[in-house]
Write a structure and sequence with these properties.
The chain has 123 residues and is an all-alpha fold. The chain has two domains: 2-62; 75-106. 72% of the residues lie in helices and 0% in strands. The protein has five helices and no strands. The longest helix is centred in the N-terminal third of the chain and has 38 residues, at 2-39. The protein starts with a helix and ends in a 17-residue tail after the last helix. The mean pLDDT is 81.
């Protein structure tokens, strides 16, 4: 059992190393193909390309978890559930007032999940 787990972990480590190496080579070749011709910059080595990838990850990607918000369900799903719960708690008068306000501002305001009426459909 422990041997299988070790082999699985070793396989993942090897695949990650191959992926990093591949991305670095692709970055190096793209840089060396484009940047000297377009901007007059010098060519770079494989290690410099790896450094650019790490720098780009730090500056633009960060090191956050990719699970999403709202308990890992994704923020859109959590927001939709929130809106549907609020809609269910509204009285019919409150719903109509909300629809009228949305029509006045944005030209929308139908029930969640219902089809737009003729006056709400875009022209």
């Amino acid at each position: 059992m422990k041997r299988n787990r070790f082999l699985r972990v070793l396989k993942i480590v090897v695949l990650v190393a191959i992926a990093i190496t591949l991305f670095s080579f692709v970055t190096m070749h793209l840089w060396n193909w484009l940047m000297p011709a377009v901007f007059g910059l010098r060519t770079i080595t494989w290690l410099q390309a790896l450094g650019l990838l790490v720098l780009g990850k730090i500056l633009f990607g960060g090191f956050h978890r990719h699970g999403g918000g709202c308990g890992g369900r994704g923020w859109k799903r959590g927001w939709r559930e929130h809106c549907e719960a609020r809609w269910a708690q509204m009285s019919p008068e409150e719903r109509e007032r909300f629809r009228a306000g949305m029509r006045g501002r944005w030209g929308c305001g139908s029930d969640p999940g219902s089809e737009p009426t003729a006056e709400q459909s875009p022209r």
